[in-house]
Amino acid sequence: MAAPTPAATPAPAPRVSLVIATYRRVDALRSTLRALQLQTCPDWEAVVVGDCCDPDTGAMLEQLGDPRLCYYNLTERFGEQSGPNSFGLALVRAPVVCFLNHDDLLLPDHLEQGLRRLEQARADVLLAPALKLVNCHEDPEGRIRPVFMKRITLGPALRDLRMLLRREDLFYDPSSFWLVRTAFARRVGTWTHSSRLWRTPLRDWLLRAWRRGGRFAFTPELAGIRVVTHNHRGSRRRYNAVTPEHQRLVRLFESLPPEQVRERVPRRMREKAALLGRPLRRRDRPAEVTLGLRLQALLFRVFGLDWQVLRWRSQGVKPGAFHSRLLRLRTGETLAAVPDLSTLLADPERYRVV
């Protein structure tokens, strides 16, 4: 009788998992993944979740041939990141997760520095600043010159998480530059689809994390770059366009060591500010925690009552109104139904492509 074949030893879990929701942005996604491959911390895995993508996405991932990348392509459209993010969160193996946008670039040492900061702070969530890029020129000599619009950051005044309840939905966006402990992320739960919300899914998820008593930490070190590749009015025409800005930034990352990338990027911002003859616009200007905001925070933390949402509802604003308009502008779609996430997760390997 032949001896039984020993079971294969499962691969050890990586230090960090990245969930990347994607749709029709093959060129940008390739650059995002290339920036990920340049990380000084190589111990990561990326779960790329396609929101009913064309075969081009899977073909590109197969060409990369990186065993740290796995690709699932959903057969029903969510029309946004909430479904793919929730799907990926259920599959990740690492103790820390990052919800990385498919067109954002992480600086080469972000994972290494962010994981260290997260451990030092003993936090559940680490929030890091980033730069918003509007253009990236390449001169005839081959020098790459990025032009930045602003710094997406969290200054000392915004460390008071009651600011999450203010109307503006921009201070903590995007999620690409968060690091979250996976166990805590799963306690917070899945991302809610925007058709059921008055706030964005990102803000809703972060508010729930705050209400759960999560320990938040902040770092002043730049995490990455958000590339502005389209605006709302013209975005449908350009949504699937090739973006040379991504490719040039990746070449910049490849040509310089991480510490020089960090030094060079803020310098370009200062040069631009001087060129325009005005102080650099920043989003970490002091903000006041008023008595009304304190009361709103108390109602939310104790009873789960979101005062701003109650105001919108009283004004007749319907849930998902903003997302529906944005989806029509970007892709021309109108989605009538939201797929059932539990059905998709019943057999996730059915959607595995790479």
Low-confidence stretches: 231-237, 273-286
* Whole-angstrom Rg: 21 Å
* End-to-end CA span: 37 Å
Q: Helix count?
A: 13
Features:
seven-stranded mixed β-sheet
Overview of this structure, please?
This protein has 354 residues and is α/β, with parallel strands linked by helices. It is 38% helix and 16% strand. It contains 13 helices and eleven strands. Helix 1 runs parallel beside helix 8. The two termini are 37 Å apart. About 6% of the residues have low confidence.
Topology at a glance:
Elements: E1 16-22, H1 26-37, E2 44-50, H2 55-64, E3 69-73, H3 82-91, E4 96-99, E5 104-106, H4 110-121, E6 125-127, E7 130-138, E8 144-152, E9 178-181, H5 182-188, H6 201-211, E10 216-218, E11 224-227, H7 235-238, H8 244-255, H9 258-276, H10 291-303, H11 307-314, H12 321-331, H13 341-346
Parallel strand pairs: 1-2, 1-4, 2-3, 6-10, 7-11
Antiparallel strand pairs: 4-9, 5-11, 6-9, 7-8
Helix pairs in contact: 1-8
